[in-house]
Amino acid sequence: MSMDSDSQKHDYSNLKKRDDFFLGCFINTGIFLFFPSIILLIGTKGKETTYWIILVLILLIMVYSGIQSYKLESILESIDKEKKQLETIAIPFRIENDKNKADTKLSVNNSQVAGITVREPLDDPKEELAKLIGLENVKEQVQALYHFVNIQRIRRQRGLKTAALSYHCVFTGNPGTGKTSVARIVGAIYRNSGVLTRGHVVETDRSGLVAEYVGQTAVKTNRLIDSALDGVLFIDEAYSLLSESNNDFGHEAVSTLLKRMEDNRDRLVVILAGYGDEMQKFLDSNPGLRSRFSRHIVFPDYTTEELTEIFRLMASEQEYSVSDEALEKLRVVISTEVRKKSRGFGNARYVRNLFERSLERQAVRLAEDGAMTTERLRQLDAADISL
Question: In this structure, what CATH number is given to the domain that contains residue 366?
Answer without folding.
Answer: 1.10.8.60
